[in-house]
Design goal:
This protein has about 300 residues and is an all-alpha fold. About 75% of the residues lie in helices and about 0% in strands. The protein is built from 15 helices and no strands. Helix 4 packs across helix 14. The longest helix is centred in the first third of the chain and has 32 residues. The radius of gyration is 25 Å and the shape is flat. The two termini are about 35 Å apart.
Length: about 300
Amino acid sequence: MKTDAHRRAVRRAAMKTEVYRLLPRWAQIVINAVLLVVALTPVVYMLFASVNDDLAVARGDFWPSAFHPGNYAEIWDTVELGDGLLNSILVAGSVAVVSALVSVMTAYVLVRFSFFGRGLILRGLLALQSIPGTLMLLPVFVLFANLARILSIDVIGTRWALFVTYLTFALPFSTWVMVTYLRGLPHELDEAARLDGASSWRILRSIVIPLSWPGLVVSAIFAFLLGWNDVLFASVITNADTRTAAVALQVFGATQEGGAIPLYGQLMASALVCALPVVVLYLAFQRFLVGGLTAGGVK
């Protein structure tokens, strides 16, 4: 009798912990394998093309006919990738840090306090996500041009102008992510801290931020990717000295059009080098991303 009860308890525990699957295991393996091949084939082709001869790539060869690892050394001169990567890291990294910090403070006020216009602000955050960035290109450029004329300072072509532009687009989404995450944090934590005499700033610094790392990572990575992948605003706001890696890659690709055989190997090598920081960033913060996207909060 005790054995049967134990078996039923084990079965119930297994049913609670196991994920219910709609497909049999062999079908899941096949589908995952197909999806993996589809996702990795372009990456593998770029890797082979980056060390292949340009003529062989132009013929459509998949496997390198002759290895040219020197493409990775030549891109630092031909593509000017070093300055572009430095500018991208400085701008995108600063946007990620500032956006995460400002968004968690804004979300804390919107979630924990009630005031007039709170609902309007929350709806406005969602509404801002529906505005295409391309519609804002001309207004942003005109605003910066007028600001430079009024203040007699250089705005167009500077890193801080690009920083302000990216921060403007990143903050609404980052704030909404943090609002969703902070709603999962129990209010009892704040009440217990206030009974001990903690101020709102102390609660935010000592309780909310340490418990919100997954949400902070999601908002920071979104802001980082926004600045890292952008070409439209960076190509208009920056100059030859402040252009980002994405713009440097786009300019190099445009110069390869027409005439002789393009430098496919260097183009593919540059693309892989530009993608490497994002991959490293994802691998480093993968465990935080899962918790932040599910917005699980603290149970």
